[in-house]
Input
Amino acid sequence: MSEIKVIVAGPRGKMGSEALKMIEKQPALSLSACIDRKHEGRKVSDIDGLPPFDAVIYTDAEACLRQVDADVLIDLTTPENGYKHTKLALENGVRPVVGTTGFTREQLDELMQLSEEKKTGAVIAPNFAIGAVLMMQFAKWAAKHFPDVEIIEKHHDQKLDAPSGTAVKTAELIKEMREPHHQGHTDEKETLEGARGADVEGMKIHSMRLPGLVAHQEVIFGGLGETLTVKHDSIHRESFMSGVKLATEKVMDLDVLVYGLEYLLD
Ligand SMILES: NC(=O)C1=CN([C@@H]2O[C@H](COP(=O)(O)OP(=O)(O)OC[C@H]3O[C@@H](n4cnc5c(N)ncnc54)[C@H](O)[C@@H]3O)[C@@H](O)[C@H]2O)C=CC1
Ligand SMILES: O=C(O)C1=N[C@H](C(=O)O)C[C@H](O)C1
Output
C-alpha cells in the first residue's frame, strides 16, 4: 500500500496533537499540511510541543484543501468548523476522517449526500476508542432485553457540546431496539428544570462536566429486580488513536460516508 497523505485540522488541540504523535509513529502515513486558527505559513516543527514535521500550517481551510496534495483530512476541531472542513474536503476530493462531535442530524445527512454525490469516502466517528464502540454495541444488544435505560456521560470541563457525540450515537443505536415509551412515574414532575436530563423518546441522557475527567460513559438498564451497567472509560486520549489510524486506512476504500467506527471493525 502506498503512503497515505494526511492533513490534520486542529493540530494544537488535545486530540489533534495526539493525532500528530500517532502519524509520526506510522510509516504508512505522512503529514502533508495542517489547518489551524493561527500560525499561517509556519512549519509544524516551529510550534512548541508539536512533533518535528516539515508540513506547513494553513489558516485558510479552503486554500489548504484545494492546493495541498492529500488523501485524507483528519478533523479534530469544533462542531462549526468541523462541519465546514468536512464539506470543503468532500468538495475537493479529500476523504474526511472526522472525530469532531456536535454535528446536527441535518448536517450529517447533508454530508452523507455530498459524499455519495462526489463518490468520496468519509468516516465520521463520534468515538474512535475501540472499547467505546464495543460499549455502544453491548448497550444496543442489552436494550433488546431491557427497554428502560438511562445514559450518563462524563467529560472534562473544556468540552463544547452536550450531550456528547457518543451519548447521542448510543441513544440512536438503542432506538433501533426499543419502542419509544415514557420512563419513570407517569405523574413525575421536575421541581428543578433539567433534573431528569435530556429526553430521547423517553430515554434520559445526563451530561457531567468536571476537571480531571477525560471521557466516560455508563449505560444503565433497569429490569425487574435487577440493573445492568455497561461502562467505558477513556483515561488517556491515546485510547482514540488506533481508531483514527484504522479509519484513515479504511476510508481509502470507501466511496460513501460511514457514521460510526463499528462499520470498519471486523
Ligand atoms: N471521536 C472521538 O473519538 C473524539 C472526539 N473528540 C472531539 O474532537 C473535537 C476536538 O476535541 P479536543 O481536541 O478535546 O478539543 P480542543 O479544544 O483541545 O482542540 C480543538 C482545536 O481545534 C482548533 N480549532 C478551532 N477552530 C479551528 C479552525 N477553524 N481551524 C483549525 N483549527 C481550529 C482549536 O484551536 C483547538 O486547538 C471535539 O469536537 C471533541 O468532542 C474528542 C475526543 C475523542
Ligand atoms: O470531547 C471529548 O473529549 C470527547 N468527545 C467525543 C464525544 O463527544 O463523544 C468522544 C469522547 O467521548 C471524548
Notes: Residues 130-145 form the longest helix (16 residues).
